[in-house]
Amino acid sequence: MRVGIIGTGFIADVHAAALRAAGQDIVAICGNEEAVLASFSKKWSIAKTYTDYRDIPLEILDAVHICTPPNTHYAIAKYFLEKNLCLEKNVCLEKNLCLEKNLCLEKNPEPEKNLDLEKNQELGKNRILEKHIDIGKNLEKKLGKNKGKLAIICEKPLCLNIEEGKELLELVKQSETPFGVCFHNRFYPAIRKMRELLQSGELGRPILLYGAYEQEFHIPPVPYSWRFDVKDGNHLRAVSEIGSHVLDLTHFLLEKPVITLQAAFQNRNHVLFKDQAGMLWDKEDAGKLPVPIENEDTAVLNMQLQGGCRVALALSEVSHGKKNRIFLNLICEKGRLGWDNDRADLLSFSSEKGSSKELSLGMQTGYKDCFREMFSDFYNALAEGRTSVMATPSEALQNEELCEAFYRSAKAEKEFIFSDALEQEKAKPDSLEEADLKEEVENFGKEKCEKKKRKDFLIQHYSMELLEGEHTFFSECYHSPNRNTEGKLLASTMYGLYCKEPKSYSDFHKLSHEEIWTFLEGDPFTLYLLYEDGSVDTVTLGSDLASGQLLQYTVPVGVMQAGCLKPGGEYALYSCTVVPAFDWQCFTMVSTEEIMQKYGEKQEIKDFYKRFI
To answer: For the chain, what is the radius of gyration of the CA atoms?
Structure first.
């Protein structure tokens, strides 16, 4: 096959090596940086180079590989699919023209004999019915079903917009284009063997699939790239980049639709700093500009599949020491399977209690070997008229929909029914709570980012540390130089910070001194107050005075107290003034057991421990 590659980055290089190993002919390369393009073409001895994919003559290609950033996939794939659709229409037209010519010959093969006109017309009508199917079949055989059509292989994800994905899928169907999407992990021999064992029924019903995908790819220093660009459509990162691969393996192995799902995201830092060379760093220095990190470094994904199997997946692009590690463990009714791509040739297998063995699947298969196997399967399937194991556009679109549903679950902090997740976002809210939720999701990229930047600034500006035991960020800011008659300093003040990420709060404790809490900025927070008579009270500090929030509150001596952000908040900056001044002799932690024994039936206490303990 004569193949053109669009893109000159890392993954394009992987495609080129795999295509050559699979015996395919790379005849054209397209890239938008001329120096890189020249280097790529020289490395792989590709004669024809282009800076615009639309300039590539279609007649020199049998297939095209799209190896560009995800935000370009839609436009490029659409261009070639529409060319194939035009070809499909032209083939139909050619069939009709040939049919008409043949019918004219049948109607009057010997015009010199001047057959009676009426008889000739009847003869033509009859032969239309007799010859139409045969002529069409002969032309189809002559041209071939995919004659002149470009096969398309696209890197995942198919695109970044679900509606665009649906449009591409419809074009694939209309044009009957051979189209594969690069979920290469399907082509590890051990994964194929896992699927074979599951399909055989030998291990019975799948009960639990759990695993992880870890990389250190985005630990600073790291180059700034499209991967961090939320404005250009990359509102997901760990989920769409690496999570999509394990989601595809889940689908490939278990072949069951997702019923419910839930996700939680966590970031290592919400702001990094870009230098003039385009590198991102953890710390701010002269000449570096802050860059908000609005898509996720890590994620935890949970699913329930049709049939009852549970799936739990952990994702991280900031795992030190893990270049590219995937592991999967599958617990079934009658056995267990385990696979780790650190030893990709081995499949852990157990079908009896107390025993385990490793199945060796030949020589160690690596990342690039999977691409060779994937492309070989795709092009061999075309030649043999069979279906490739490669992921289809339909499967890729469902994968994209699943990623989007996880995004919405994480932002809403709730579980979704998969079939309802995407529609729920479009539905008109029927309550103020749902309206607030929708507004929060829509404004996440702007308002939340600003709050996270402010929170990180405060921690750095005040050199805050996490207070042992109490779990809140703090920084001492004032100690009175004067002492009372007992020799104690008159007062002390500290700044404190509650934040959603990293999670910080005040666990239950009590002071033998008065403590004056003052709200300074951010989101409202709640103080939980426990009295010796068994009663419980809550006080909310914040800026919304009209709703009953307070700017200041004094906790009496000996009252047990805890504090945390109200749900939905990002951070709260406050100060605590202790009179006389704070010292460790005045501070006592209160155990969870003691709290639960006396106050455990109170709903406020249940809510607090449900969120934090």
So the answer is: 33
Do the domains 463-612 and 185-365+383-417 match in fold?
Answer: no
CA gap 353, 363 in Å, rounded: 29
Model pLDDT, residue 112: 44
Helix (H) or strand (E) holding 552: strand 552-555
Question: Could you tell me which of 596, 583, 534 has the C-alpha nearest to residue 559?
Answer: 534
pLDDT in tens, 356-392: 899 998 766 788 999 999 999 999 999 999 999 999 9
Q: Under CATH, which number does the domain 185-365+383-417 receive?
A: 3.30.360.10
Neighbours of 64 (CB within 10 A): 26
Nearest to 263 by CA among 161, 395, 448, 402: 402
Q: Is the pLDDT score of 527 beyond 80?
A: yes
Element (H, E) at 250: helix 244-254
Query: What's the mean pLDDT in 390-413?
Result: 95
* pLDDT tier for residue 275 given thresholds of 50, 70 and 90: very high
Burial class (CB within 10 angstroms; exposed 0-12, middle 13-18, buried 19+) of 426: exposed
Cα-based angle 211, 217, 218 (whole degrees, multiple of 5): 105
CB atoms < 10 A from the CB of 421, how many? 22
User: How high is the pLDDT of residue 237?
Assistant: 95
Residue 350 burial (C-beta neighbours within 10 Å; 0-12, 13-18, 19+)? middle
pLDDT at 331 over 80: yes
Q: How far is CA 295 from CA 244, 321, 445, in A?
A: 15, 22, 9
Q: How far apart are CA 7 and CA 29, in angstroms?
A: 7
- Check whether 455 has a pLDDT greater than 80: yes
The two tokens of residue 31 are: 């890239």
Give the CA diameter of the chain: 136
Percent of the chain whose pLDDT exceeds 90: 68
User: What average pLDDT is seen over the chain?
Assistant: 86
Which CATH number applies to 463-612?
2.60.120.10
Cα(52)–Cα(499) distance, integer angstroms: 48
Q: Count Cβ neighbours within 10 Å for each residue of 567-605 and write b for 16 or more, e otherwise.
A: eebbbbbbbbbbbbbbeeebeeebeeeebeebbeebebb
Domain positions in the chain are 185-365+383-417, 463-612
Using left for φ > 0, alpha for ψ between -120 and 50, and beta otherwise, residue 471 falls in left
